[in-house]
Amino acid sequence: MYEDVRYETTRGIATITIDRPEVYDAFRRQTILELNAALRDAAEDDGVYALVLTGAGDAFCAGADVNDMPDWHETMTKEEYAGYLWGVQNVVRQLRGMATPSVAAVGGPAIGAGCDFALACDARVVGPEAVLREGFVHVGLVPGDGGGWLLPRLVGESKAKEYLLTGRDITPEDAVDLGLAVEEADDPLASATAFAEEMRDLPALAVQHTKRLVDPQRSFEEYCERAMEYQWDCVNDPEHHEAVDAFSERRDPEYDRDYA
């Protein structure tokens, strides 16, 4: 089904791997189509409770494959280019918009749009060789895939501008110190999967609605109104009832689930 991407599910965890290690997992147009399809598969699968996004080999995603980048201004119209860029942006859009929580396992370079894919996940685990870089200015481009919107909300405007306007590297230590990464791990995929399992094993509706509630653009009153609706959904959720019973009885909860 996929050529540039691997899609695997194990006990409720979907793992999506950008599988082009020969080019540091840089993407071509086919890769973007497959990433969007894999994310839709995960979002629409009731047996998937958390998602891990990673890259094969020594990288996470080195951004766009320069061998697949034509002289856009000569070979594409503005409308054609907008369609291509929309597909890249939609990877970020899906990661942020899906109810399924996601974690990026960043074992190596995450450059340009690859950095944005990692930032769009709900959490990140970085390895010792990880590099997060919004390097668009180095090649005369703007962060058109979401980085200029995501990074200020994650680390603050001033720090974000430092990285966006210079293309400087965010090291593993920086990522942890800034709160961009939950941890640095020798095996980021194993640690990211463990983090995903932790989210998977909680009441699913509560996790999904909590993700939906976190919106820096929403006013406090809007938050309270939305929280009331979500809380009522959770109050009527069988997994909430089982979680309360298990807590009272000092045992692990047992949810009625069919894992993908």
TrEMBL record:
Pfam families: ECH_1
The organism's place on the tree of life at top rank: Archaea
Listed CDD domains: crotonase-like
Gene3D superfamilies with a match to the protein in the record: 2-enoyl-CoA Hydratase, Chain A, domain 1 (3.90.226.10)
Name the record gives this protein: Enoyl-CoA hydratase/isomerase family protein
Organism: Halomarina salina
Phylogenetic lineage: Archaea, Methanobacteriati, Methanobacteriota, Stenosarchaea group, Halobacteria
